[in-house]
Specification:
The protein is of the alpha+beta class. It has eight helices and ten strands. Helix 3 runs antiparallel to helix 4. The longest helix is centred in the N-terminal third of the chain and has 15 residues. 35% of the residues are buried.
């Protein structure tokens, strides 16, 4: 899912449609065209996509023999992933190198709170669900507030029910599925002191990720480009010892190399 631009500087996204169902030659041509135009490609992929999509992405990267393709699959629900992808599109307009931009995704993931209001948790397998919650999900009219990131949390909706939220100013994005409720906008958003709220259609993967289409998905995010840029540029940069690209963090997002381990050897004398 590609969200609309956050501001006039947000770069457009390329959506790789039906990647596992199109002929391999078409997918290769599309990816090669992106590399020719932009130099590097950051693929932000949901963990809810079919296994065939993941295999096709690795096949494309292998056949093109390219270390300029970063495959990024953060552990976020679909709406949170879409918000993160838009933040990277915002930062792509700045003077950041491809390695720093790609590895910024891991950093910004920590600032996203993502969850959903569900009409049932009977098929929810991505967040720990107790036996009582499973039993209550069969009671007509039951609803559950679920936080998937940064820390899993589940509450049954009732008077005073809420979820732990961010301790800094954020905006909230809401995607309404087949569930009717104002709990997210009328109760949760005020308790999280969000600075603003926007609505969008639910991502295609939402029902599969949450185990039900009776949901209202939500996430909070940092919308201001200047804040995002300051966060990324305040982190120490390093150079990948394998491919030589600049990055932040301890793993290269393009070649997956980690820093070499140097053994401490005591000289014998």
């Amino acid at each position: 899912m590609a969200l609309p631009p956050q501001d006039e500087r947000t770069l457009p996204a390329t959506v790789l449609q039906d990647l596992d169902r199109r002929p391999l030659e078409q997918a290769l041509t599309e990816m090669q065209g992106l590399l020719d135009r932009h130099g590097h490609v950051i693929v932000v992929c949901s963990r809810a996509v079919p296994a065939g999509v993941r295999r096709r992405l690795h096949t494309i990267r292998s056949l093109l023999e390219s270390d300029r393709i970063a495959l990024f699959r953060p552990d976020l629900p679909p709406l949170g992933l879409a918000a993160l992808a838009r933040q990277l599109r915002q930062l792509a307009s700045c003077d950041l190198s491809p390695g720093v931009l790609a590895s910024a995704g891991r950093l910004l993931t920590h600032y996203i709170h993502a969850g959903a209001l569900l009409g049932s948790v009977a098929r929810l397998d991505r967040v720990p669900v107790g036996l009582k919650a499973h039993a209550r999900s069969w009671v007509p009219g039951s609803q559950f507030g679920v936080l998937a990131h940064p820390e899993p949390r589940l509450v049954r909706i009732g008077p005073g029910a809420t979820l732990p939220g961010p301790e800094f100013g954020t905006w909230m994005l809401v995607a309404k599925g087949q569930l009717q409720s104002d709990w997210v906008t009328a109760t949760l958003a005020p308790s999280w002191n969000v600075l603003g709220l926007r609505e969008c259609p639910p991502p295609a993967e939402s029902a599969g990720w949450w185990g039900t289409g009776r949901l209202i998905e939500f996430c909070t995010y940092l919308p201001d480009l200047s804040v995002l840029y300051q966060l990324v540029t305040s982190v120490r940069r390093s150079t990948c010892h394998w491919c030589g690209i600049d990055l932040i963090g301890d793993r290269c997002v393009f070649c997956s190399a980690t820093p070499p381990v140097h053994e401490n050897r005591t000289p014998v004398g």
